[in-house]
Please model this.
Amino acid sequence: MKNIKFLFIGILFGIVLSKAEVISWYRIFEMFKFQSFHMYGIIGSAVVTGMILFYFFNKGSIKTFQGEKINIEPKKKGFSRNIIGGTIFGLGWALAGACPGPMFILLGRGVAAIVVVIIGSLMGAFLYHAVKSKLPH
Amino acid sequence: MDFILQPWPWYIAGPLITFVMFLLFFFGKKFGVSSNLETICAIGGAGNLVDFFKFDWKKNTWNLLFIVGTIVGGFISYQYLTPNETVAISSQTIQNLSDLGFQNAGVQYLPDEIFSIETMFSLKGFIILIGAGILVGFGSRYAGGCTSGHAIVGLSNFELPSLISVIGFFIGGLIMTWLLLPLIF
Model:
């Protein structure tokens, strides 16, 4: 059960997003209305501290627990996939008020209706791979 | 203890998200939630219908455990760490939502207009929930990542595809919030 540590990392992630209200539909609405700094502060400070962290990863001064260099897998290149896929995602993010992580955290909070959203997201992921050969990337 | 029970400010949450990301990379993995959707499809037998899902999902067990952890984290937070369910959104936001027909915005964690059991079992409410899910699942896999993989990891790593994706997230989010939500509600 060497993977059990990821359960605990997930618990930490669930508590952080829950306590910071990132998983509240209202906070997502407020973000897209530009009426609060809260969400921008969270994403922004995560990105800035992330840049510092990745600087040390790339320099090799922070390694994995086994002493290996940490390489961040590059994202797939392409304009259409990112702009169209991103826009479709954004429509869903603003409607559900939840992206994939928060959906599961809300499930833990006992929100029954989120099960429908999760089933929808599985259908969406399936549908993408069923039709992807016909889509621009 | 009182500090833990209050809503956490952005400058605590953001760096803690990076700490989670650090732990995942430190243990030789990566930070990306939406790829779990594909893993769950594969476990459910989607490989019988679409070849892509024939991959060996067992290699992603760690990420499924991460997801199970987030569920447990949500439960712990709800049961023990959140004595007050209100969300302190701005008064302008409350006014905008009231104009859309959302009662008591911010008094609970989520709006009943979308997430109550009655709404879930209404035709319109069900279509909204399942439709939102389909958009999130389809879009995140089309773009190759969601908020974690693109907005946090990708931007931190100066990835152009992630910047384009995040611009897309905002195009979609702004269209939904400013144009479509007033038509839906």
